[in-house]
């Protein structure tokens, strides 16, 4: 898979002096928290960079070790295969992403505004980390059944944030929500985000915030109120 | 799926046109690919598996397709065209847009339920069958956008609806179906009709009217 045309982070990394190109904080496609403390993290960062350039299928262990600037032997001290390294990378990225979402959601008292904050945090993270966005939303699907299972579970893990919106609603509102409402909302949201990443529009993800908020809040609040919160009123 | 696998032309009866035979061969191969893919997953399937399942010669496969991937993409194209045809045909039998969404989704869910292997191939396996298949999948979702977009005309706030609304609705519907297929419940997806129709109509006409449309 060709590298995301808008994603220039890998390009710009090459302009750095070698030492920085290897570990430029915040510019190598990994968030600052990921700044490499050890070889394992360095390998995970190397994998994310290599995959952004080559796609999962095209990435070799040689590509990973080259980006990570470690030896092949070091790779095998930490991982038995490319797949295993990918799973580690995926879990690391998803842990960060869900922490961001959970943190943002938890900071706001009112449910509807908390949903907005959670979605904003997700879009912000993905837009600022195009390599990781591609890794966890697109490449995860081609990385084999183990990762696909984790991907499915990660998406389903967003369901409770929306289910919380049922609390305290009138019987009329509750009556018009179906058992699959939240699943459909989450699926619609993730599908739109993935499509933008596939289309090379990762940098524009944050502009989807009002659309996603209005779409996901409408079943609970009705369009007018959902649109108001989506606009940030 | 079995009803669409044509029987081999009897030996010595060559009055069938070349075009007819070619189409039958393609249909057989596509059906075989879907069966093998549903059983083993796309990556594990080989051209040999497809050839064996279709009961054709290896050369015949390569007369029709250049590779397993080429065959997979053709399978997606076939299924999307067929799904759209069924949806449009069913929707055109009723008048209001709300009734068309209901009829169209009904036809779509019936198609999924009646062709669980093809559905798994095109809705689940397509996501992990490589970049070209994924792009094809995205395009196929896009093909349904205009059918929903008409709802903006019947909506009291059609002008103000989010630009990406249709993509989200379709993505949500496919995600629900994806989950059911993964759980091995493709044949029961028709039960989802009322809630999916309501889900699709609510942003346009409000929850009350959406519920009435499914009643």
Features:
heterodimer; A: 233 residues; mainly alpha; 68% helix; disordered N terminus; B: 215 residues
Low-confidence regions of chain A = 1-27
Characterize the overall form of chain A. elongated
The proportion of strand residues of chain B reads: under 5%
- Which H/E pattern describes the elements of chain A? HHHHHHHHHHHHHH
What is the residue-averaged pLDDT of chain A? 85
| Number of helical segments with 4 or more residues of chain A | 14
End-to-end distance of chain A, in Å? 41 Å
Which structural class best describes the helix and strand composition of chain A?
mainly alpha
Helix content of chain B: 55-70%
SSE order of chain B, as H and E? HHHHHHHHHHH
Count of runs of 4 or more consecutive helical residues of chain B: 11
Taking all residues together, what is the mean pLDDT of chain B? 90
Description:
The complex is a heterodimer of chains A (233) and B (215). By secondary structure, chain A is an all-alpha fold. Chain A has 14 helices and no strands. The N and C termini of chain A lie far apart (41 Å). With 215 residues, chain B is mostly helical. Chain B is 70% helix and 0% strand. Chain B contains eleven helices and no strands. Chain B has helices spanning 18-40, 47-54, 58-64, 68-91, 97-114, 116-124, 131-142, 145-149, 151-154, 165-182, 193-214. Chain B is elongated, with a radius of gyration of 19 Å. Chain B starts with 17 loop residues before the first helix and ends with a helix. Classes of the chains: A mainly alpha (233), B mainly alpha (215). Chain A binds chain B through residues 1-2, 55, 57, 138, 141-142, 144-145, 148, 152, 155, 173, 176, 178-181, 183-192, 195, 198-199, 208, 210-212, 214-215, 218-219, 222-224, 227, 230, and chain B through 41, 43, 127-131, 134-135, 138, 141, 157, 160-165, 167-176, 178-179, 182, 192, 194-196, 198-199, 202-203, 206-208, 210-211.
In short:
The complex is a heterodimer of chains A (233) and B (215). With 233 residues, chain A is mainly α.
């Amino acid at each position: 898979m060709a590298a995301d045309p808008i994603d220039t982070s890998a390009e710009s990394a090459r302009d750095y002096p070698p030492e920085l190109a290897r570990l430029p904080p915040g510019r190598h496609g990994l968030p600052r928290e990921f700044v490499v403390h050890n070889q394992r993290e360095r390998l995970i960062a190397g994998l994310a960079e290599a995959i952004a350039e080559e796609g999962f299928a095209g990435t070799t262990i040689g590509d990973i070790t080259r980006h990570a600037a470690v030896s092949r032997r070091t790779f095998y001290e930490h991982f038995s295969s490319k797949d295993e390294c990918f799973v580690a990378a995926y879990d690391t990225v998803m842990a960060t992403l869900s922490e961001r979402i959970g943190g943002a959601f938890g900071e706001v008292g009112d449910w509807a505004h908390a949903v907005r904050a959670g979605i904003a945090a997700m879009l912000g993270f993905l837009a600022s980390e195009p390599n990781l966005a591609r890794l966890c939303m697109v490449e995860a699907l081609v990385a084999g059944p183990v990762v696909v299972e984790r991907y499915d579970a990660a998406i389903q893990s967003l369901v409770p944030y929306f289910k919380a919106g049922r609390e305290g609603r009138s019987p009329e509102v509750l009556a018009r929500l179906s058992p699959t409402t939240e699943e459909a909302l989450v699926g619609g949201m993730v599908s739109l985000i993935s499509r933008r990443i596939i289309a090379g529009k990762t940098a524009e993800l944050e502009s989807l915030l009002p659309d996603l908020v209005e779409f996901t809040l409408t079943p609970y609040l009705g369009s007018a109120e959902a649109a108001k919160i989506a606009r940030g009123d | 799926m079995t009803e669409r696998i044509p029987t081999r032309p009897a030996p010595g009866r060559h009055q069938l046109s070349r075009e007819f035979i070619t189409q039958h061969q393609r249909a057989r191969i596509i059906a075989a690919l879907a069966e093998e893919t549903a059983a083993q997953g796309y990556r594990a399937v080989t051209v040999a598996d497809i050839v064996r399942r279709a009961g054709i010669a290896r050369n015949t496969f390569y007369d029709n397709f250049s590779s397993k991937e080429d065959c997979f993409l053709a399978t997606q194209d076939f299924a999307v065209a067929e799904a759209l045809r069924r949806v449009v045909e069913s929707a055109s039998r009723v008048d209001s847009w709300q009734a068309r969404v209901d009829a169209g989704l009904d036809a779509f869910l019936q198609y999924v339920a009646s062709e669980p292997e093809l559905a798994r191939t095109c809705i689940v396996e397509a996501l992990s069958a490589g970049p070209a298949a994924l792009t094809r999948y995205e395009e196929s979702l896009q093909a349904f956008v205009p059918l929903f977009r008409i709802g903006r005309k019947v909506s009291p706030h059609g002008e103000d609806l989010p630009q990406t609304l249709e993509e989200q609705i379709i993505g949500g519907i496919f995600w629900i179906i994806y989950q059911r297929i993964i759980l091995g419940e493709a044949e029961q997806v028709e039960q989802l009709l009322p809630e999916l129709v309501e889900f699709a109509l609510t942003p346009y006409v409000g929850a009350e009217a959406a519920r009435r449309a499914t009643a």
